[in-house]
Amino acid sequence: LAKGRLKELRDEIAPMTRFVGVHAKTDDFIQFPLDDGPVDCNLWHGKNRHRKIQITGAQRRERLNCMTELNKTGTGRVFLGLTDDGPTEEFLKEMDDDRQMYSPQKAWETIVQAVRLCIARKSDNREADTLIIDAPLNYLPSERWRGIEHDFSRDIVKSPFSEIFLINVDDNGDLCVRIK
What we know:
single chain, alpha/beta, six-stranded mixed sheet
């Protein structure tokens, strides 16, 4: 589990490697301020375009709980179905319960709500123009996420970002879905 400078590597740099793998060329320039400011990454596409990027993650509390279980016991679950705004007691109860299967609908609903929380949490950022949300899209096959932007139409209208992307890794490589 990432802490200190490793946290920035896990939370900012690793997600950006997925994004630039899809949206950048070899002669583009990337820079990470690593200063807890409103812009986590600057990406210059040649001389014509400068993206100021804010990077965040969905379902990080779920990931922390699942990884803690894995590190302690050697086995762990992947999905709890709880979003980051849930009370700690709810996470503790879920971790104490037996593992359960989840339905595709539950995974979809949980990720949609988690992404909405990320968009709302970052809505006061007026310096970055692009928001990248590292979300566990691997809960469902990648083709299920195509067209997801319709689920966020009301959230996107309020967002100050000109672009919003969901990113993750799937069996076919990097998955990057534009929702705005």
